[in-house]
Amino acid sequence: MTAREISGGKRERKSSPECCQIHLLAHYRHHRHHGDFVFYHRRFHHGDELYDVRPLLKQLNQHFDSNRALINLPRKFKIAVSGCHLHCIRHEIQNVSFVAVPQDDKVVFDLYVGGGLSSGRQFALRLERTCQPDQVLAVSDAVAHLFHDYGNRENRSAARLRHLIQNWGLEKFRDALENQLDFVLGTGQPPQLTALAQRHHYGSFNSHNRKTCGLGIKTSSGKLGAETVSALIKLMEHHHIDFVRLTPTQDLLLLGLKKNSLPEVIEGLHALDLQTAPGPLRLHSTACTGLTYCKFALSETKEFTEQLLKSLEQRFPEWEKPLTIAVSGCPTAAPTLLSPISVWWAAKSKTHPASQSTGMIYT
Ligand code: SF4
To answer: Domain Nitrite/sulphite reductase 4Fe-4S spans what residues (predicted)?
Structure first.
């Protein structure tokens, strides 16, 4: 997304696949009857990324957009395709994930299935199978058909793909998937996954062409405010910065910076209270949408998180170990499965949930 596009400059309307191409994190959702696809992909011209997944995502979008056989899935269905060398897509909490892995001078995708939050929450299970990039579409389609045909349609709380896998067991699911395919999936060693504490892109990094660079910026739990956005656009225009993209952890990436402008850009960002080297206590903090925009929320989350982090930073100025704190406005606790410290709100009373909610902390 360019600075002009953010600021509301004239922009040609694009269809969904092209829109997905220009986003770092493509979040594309269909609401058709009960069916619901969500696609994620990672690609942002990082010099160390493993694979450009944008063409794959375009294929997936086109396929599912025009596939009437899959318009009535039991519930939401999320596909993640990651070419990121730091594994920041969070494949652990997606329904089907393709994680790029180098293998014999090529890149294959390691498969994970059944991750998810809320009821029956679990980390995605490694299928112990790999596929080639040109097989991503067929595998996604086969998993979607299994979900369509065998997913639970009686009980909404047990209707996600993970529930089907929990009922069947991974082996039966893998056999069923392989029976659907007209090619043989590969096998390989598990990917060397980046530790959660290192899955971020803060600070500067080289782009593919090595002539320009990118800059990862920590936001305040994804909240910027109109004045900050406006000032950020001016800063980008002043330094001829090409693109800004979003990350799965509510942060920003500026792309196409000239290397000699880096110190001045960082100074400008700090003046806007946007950090490029966040401290260990806020390195991985996230907050869900919360009461401001979510009808399920029992509490505001983003201001609360900022106050919590400021308080911790004052009390523990010498703290060194990266900490992951996730705040959620309801017991669904969407961001919290991957976080050693979670804060969420639960209702004390079903009749007056918002006024009777109480904060819960889990470590
Ligand atoms: S975790 Fe709960 S409160 Fe937060 S955005 Fe999701 S549904 Fe809403």
So the answer is: 47-182
Q: Residue 288 CA: which ligand 1 atom is closest? A: 4
- The pLDDT tens digits of the residues spanning 229-244 come to 999 999 999 999 978 8
Separation of CA 295 and ligand 1 centre (Å) = 8
Do 200-271 and 286-362 show the same overall fold?
no
Q: What is the CATH number of domain 286-362?
A: 3.30.413.10
Ligand 1 atom nearest to 298, measured from its CA: 3
Q: How crowded is residue 347: how many other Cβ atoms within 10 Å of its Cβ?
A: 16
| pLDDT 10s digits, 99-108 | 999 998 899 9
Beta carbons within 8 Å of 209's beta carbon, 6+ residues apart: none
Range 3-180 classified under CATH 3.40.50.300 = no
- CA distances to 57, 71, 305, 330, 359 from 225, rounded to whole Å, are 30, 37, 16, 24, 26
Nearest CA to ligand 1 atom 7: 296
